[in-house]
Amino acid sequence: MMAILKDEAPVALRHEGTRVFESRGWEVDLTKRELRANGSAVPIGSRAFEIIETLVLSAGALVTKDDLTRRVWPGLIVEDNTVQVHVSAIRKALGPDRSILKTVSGRGYRLLGDWEIRQELSTPTAVERGRSESYPFLTNVPVAASALIGRENAVEQLCDLVSAYRLVTLTGPGGIGKTVLASEVARRLFPTSESDVFFVELVSLSDPKLIPSTIADTLNLKLQSDAMSPESVARTIGGRRMLLVLDNCEHVVDAAAVMAETLVRLCPHTTILATSRETLRIDGEFAYRVAALEVPAQHVDVSDDVLGHSAVQLFIARTRSLRTDLGPRSEMLPVIAAICRKLDGMPLAIEFAAARAATLGIEQVAEHLDDRFALLTGGRRTALPRHQTLRATLDWSYELLPEAEQRLLRHLSVFPAGFTLAAAAAVVSSNESSVATGISSLVSKSLVTMDGSEAASRWRLLETVRVYGLEKLVLDNEENETAMRRVVAFYVALFAPFAIESQLQTAIDDLGRYRREIDNLRAGLNWAFSRGGDTALGFELAATVGDFWIAASMVAECCEWAEKALSKIGPAIDTRWEMVLQCSFGIALIYTQGMTPHARAVLVQALALARRLEDFNYQLRATCGLWFHSARSMALTDAFAFAREYDEVAQERDIHSRATAAWLVGVPQTYLGDHTQASERLKWAIDNYPVEARRRDMIRLGGDPRASSQAHRTVNLLSQGFLNEASRESRLAVDEARSAGQPTALCASLAWAAGFISLSLGELESANNYGEELIDIAYKHELRPFHAAGLCVRGTLAVRRGDADVGIGLLRSGLADMQAARYLLFHPFFRTELAAALGTIGLFDEGVAEINETLRFAIETDYRWFVPEILRTKGELQVLRGAGDPALIEDLFRQSMKQASAHRAIYWELSAATSLAALLRNQHRHGEALAVLSPLYDHFADGLSTPRLREAGHLLHQLRGKNGSESLRD
């Protein structure tokens, strides 16, 4: 028996006499090539059976992997995974007795059990695989023209299904590969099915009554033409063992269903594998929906990940078959992935695209996919006419639809993001019941698919089908205009809660529902503002969704649509809609372009309209917008005035309004250096602000009062010398802003935490982490001012780590961007860092010029809190230069201490005192130096490990030693 395992000829064994091995209810029939459980055949693939055959003939002995692969896959290179897949299939077939197939790790397999032979074994003889001794089975299935890519799992599933069901129907849209898949299944089954396998093409039939005669001709049945019927064909087939592939049933689906039902009923050994864009809907049918090929997700860009998707594999294989030098270069893989995504993983469309890529190049195909029906033509010459262009493929399906369903398909094409039943009913202006029936029919015909991304009922068209439907729609200008006007009106109603103050929070809480409509919303706005659109309706929609864009963290988009709408304002001037759009536009401009004069002018106009219309909500919004603009552009007097104006009104309102007012007042107080009052006011705002209002206020006010209060209070705490608390509060501010999910609020907290707190305290790792997160988020959401702040953090860190040239370049770049955006809140801090950095590399004159300009700016704008540090840095630059007047340098340090003391900013006072003490020590004025530094240092109870306090402590240690020595000498 073991000698048989060495035979590598590609033949099956047939045994005269002995045919069956038995063990515990299992039978292995080597003649019929069946695995049976208690007399019933168990479906199993041909090669899986050959593994069983090899193992049972080994009589329980070990069969190595090499022997197994040589026997079952003669002449082929087989991966271990292939063997494991087939072994898993056998174990699945063995069910509860799966353990009788034992794996010997690293060696091979053995089949356990006492396998008995019914009769004496005679000499085995070789016969052609898949054919019975008594009957020569027939097939007309053509040889595969090329390898089938990405369908191995589907083929295996279908082989099992065809063994378990009498009728299996492959459904799916045109071009999805139903015929190719059915043909491959038929080819796979023929060698082991012990039946005839016939492929019957129905595509060319114009008369459904011709189905029986077409089958009879294919099977070479001798029937009189006048007696041709489903019953006569079925009775002639009778008990023959047969797998019948009925291909392309959709255009004769009713007649095909009658034929299939008759064959299943009258032919006990006939199995049918059908392909159709809709199911036959008869008893016993198993519907198998053919899926698209796998496409890489939007974020997948690693080469191995891209190449692991079957759609990409097909594109590359077909392209290389036409042009061998066009290999999958790594830089082109993202482009190929994008092509496959846009084509929904549809094999026929991908083959067309590959053919065009072989002649035009991959990038050209990607750039012109919007005109896919003109581009994707020229299929194989031997293909059916409807498979030679992408348009012809869709024409075939479209023309089979009744007029009502054609109209519904055209109208559904206006939804690029898919649609709900309510949206579909609105666009066709019909009741939901009748529209649901139409959608159901289009789903059954594989033209509409369920969107499986959510539990709610939602459908979509494959992108290629949608583009086709849209082309059909725009052919009739009136129909297209009517449909699009209904779409825009539907989204005005759907997004209305974002424009109603009392419903805004409810809309925010259900944000996910609205996010799914973004592409549909864009389509409606694009049409409304296009030539031939409805500008007035578009203006209403743009105003309605202003708060939605902010809630969805899409500030740049808010800016774009508000600007476009205002440019076409027309009769909407001086209306509430203009007020809403001006306010949205102004706040969006602040975050996307900075504190520009244009942003201020827009917000001034919004405030004037709000006052004229007596709309308190929008008066508050516009006031906050102007407050932000003034505070960040360093017009602090104006900012304080706007804050006080709101504070006066807020005192007569609820605690929410008073907490908001405390925030608005506390922030400019911080910049003015009133740290004690500012800290108290901001702490009150944090404690009393209603947390549940923050998401709504971030939309209404353009900021997060709670996180912003925490972030600004860190400046007060640091300045007052509460260093550990400042560090802790900065982390809380970032966590608070991060939990709110608003990028603008998060960027503000990150900028404070990275720029002022972490850098001032020497927490370089935190500064780096926060700074990089700031850059990433600002870049992603197009928040230019915050991106500039992030670059400055990165530059400051480079300087402190010894790479001054790189750091200075980054600081200059970030500061220039801040200046262009007029986002000057962080400007004095980072310009001071730049001046100090220039001094470290010997560019003293440039450093002094920078610090002088920074000091002038801070004084002119009342940015008082940072003036002490600017003065100290100016003095340090003079010390570094080594040629300055010692008296003038000493005066700079003393001025810095005086200003800090006036602000009760002991941290900045200590910083200046440390510089002054070092200067005095170098002049041998140790006692004076000690008297300057000691009382300030002794005030600190925490933060002693920070760089500034370590420097001060080390200097004090030196001074106390020196002073003691001098006292002894005296």
CATH-derived architecture of one domain: 3-Layer(aba) Sandwich
- DSSP E strands, number: 17
Per CATH, the superfamily of one domain is P-loop containing nucleotide triphosphate hydrolases
Bulk shape: elongated
| Rounded Rg | 39 Å
Which parts are unreliable, with pLDDT below 50 for 5 consecutive residues or more?
A: 1-17, 120-135, 381-385, 966-970
In which range does the helix fraction lie?
55-70%
- CATH overall fold name of one domain: Rossmann fold
- Let me know the largest β-sheet: 5 strands, antiparallel
Number of helices: 46
Structural class category: alpha/beta
Overall mean confidence score, pLDDT: 85
Give the percentage of residues in beta strands.
5-15%
First and last CA, distance: 113 Å
The spatial strand order of the largest sheet comes to 5-4-3-2-9
State the CATH class of one domain: Alpha Beta
